[in-house]
Known about the structure:
By secondary structure, the chain is α+β, with helices and mostly antiparallel strands. The protein has one domain (50-73, 119-388, 442-494): CATH 1.10.630.10. Helix content is 48%, strand content 10%. The protein has helices at residues 61-64, 71-82, 99-106, 119-127, 139-154, 156-178, 186-202, 213-234, 239-244, 248-270, 277-284, 289-319, 322-336, 350-362, 394-397, 422-431, 445-462, and strands at 9-10, 15-16, 29-30, 36-37, 85-88, 93-96, 183-184, 368-372, 377-378, 383-384, 389-393, 463-466, 473-476, 478-481, 487-491. The strands form six sheets. It has a four-stranded mixed sheet. α6 (156-178) packs antiparallel against α7 and α7 (186-202) packs antiparallel against α12 (289-319). The chain is globular and about 65 Å long. The relative contact order is 0.17. Bound molecules: protoporphyrin IX containing FE (HEM). Protoporphyrin IX containing FE is lined by residues 115, 133-135, 146, 298-299, 302-303, 306-307, 310, 365-366, 369, 434-437, 440-444, 447-448.
Amino acid sequence: MLTHTTPVACTMLGVRASSLRQPLQTHRQKTGLNVIVDCGAPVWRSARRPVSSIPVTSPGAYARDGGVESIHMYSVKWHKELGPIYRDHDMKAIFLSDPVMVDQVVGRGERYPKLFVPAAWTLHARIYGEQRGLLFKEGEEWWQARRMVNPFLLKNSALASMHTVLNEDIEHFMQVFSRGKTSLEEIDLYRWLVQSMIRIFIGDNLKSSEKSIPEIAEQVVFDVRGIFDSTAALMLVNVEEAAKSESADWVKFCKHTNSIFSMLRNLIKDAGDNLGGVAGSLLKGGMDRDEIEKIVADLMLGGMDTTAITSNWIIYTLASNQTVQDQVRAEVQRVCGDRRSSCELTADIPITRGLLKEVMRLYPVAPFLTRILSEPVDLENHHLPAGSFVAISLFVMGQNSDIFPDPGQIIPDRWMRNSNDARTRQTMALSALPFGHGVRMCIGRRLAELQMLLLVSRLVQDYKLDTVDTAEYITRMVGIPRVNPRIMIRPRNSN
Ligand code: HEM
């Protein structure tokens, strides 16, 4: 049961928790997952009202309040003012922050859920004749591709077949520090992930590539940042006109997008007949080679960046919170003893899993999930017609003190099975969806979780992490630190 009696300040946002309280949680609701949210307040019943009755933000507020960089804080402000459902006047989107409504929108078994893709990305794909990967596909075409790739990334046997590569690559990453390196930088994470993703997706074919792993990692960082910065700028203008006039942002966007995809597609081309990994399996499964290049290049790029950014936040969290670092280390020691942690040993480290959930709750790489409704959806009080653009405010939901008491604190134990009853656990799960929800949920979820569990468990076994910096979460399409915190890394056996 959720209570109204937790007046805990939301430390991270500087907003009183009570201000984030959600009116629609104040009455009983049954979700698709049979979650009953009951706050004991009176139930109101009313006919479903049209979209026009949903409270709306004031015109021009989006640009005035900081635009893309502060869009997460913008949603905090408007949810606080207008409640768990509001319309954004400028973005023509409906924002939700109530787990019950979220489940009604993304968990209701829509056959072909449609994501919002920035106009610049779709226009670029049209102009350059590139159809790109899963993210860009819709309807039956999306499903046909998704069902071919799903088994190679989601089945237990597929994950198990990656263990050797993942175990080898994390040891390779660890060696960098055994040679005396005293700081852990974001680029170290990209190097590790670039190497791992290439081996997982196309096999051990790097010998034929013109570039080394560090060079590829640097290009990924450079191009991805360029794509996100220019996309953010292009969100505020008419993209068709920007393309026609060849505006600086459009030219920058095309340059980075073409550069990264031609590099990734060349890696796959260069593998020739030796194509291995997930790409090799798709080829054996009958997928056309051109389609494989598009899908696998997108998978590698999406996977490297999201996992690197989240790993960066995890390391910052451990370095700035010694109690949590000790707690995680004690668990890893208990499970692994004298053995080095490995994929096989990460199966039973619930506190470390809880850490991952806490980090993604406070610093979600995607601050919003999006859906363009292909069918109408009836919420308790509102009717959302087909075609509505719905944004799910993950960042706001992760701060809700009714669901996460002391929301600004990292408390890995709150995710332990015995910490809460089943109903509370379900409400928590619906309020923290870093990988999305439903059939369109992130296809790389299991791989990313495995890599991050491995990273954390190996790091805390051998090293102590420290920082004196405080990282501020900002959004540049994804949630990143404004300035990367400096992380000191010292061998455990050095003192
Ligand atoms: C910490 C790491 C990651 C996070 C937080 C993350 C997050 C997400 C989110 C929020 C979505 C949208 C889901 C929805 O709307 O329901 C998504 C989709 C997607 N992710 Fe990830 N992701 C991560 C890692 C990966 C990896 C490792 C890969 C590739 C191996 C990947 C590939 C994709 C693809 C292809 C989609 C689109 C799926 C589709 O449209 O069918 N992601 N991810």
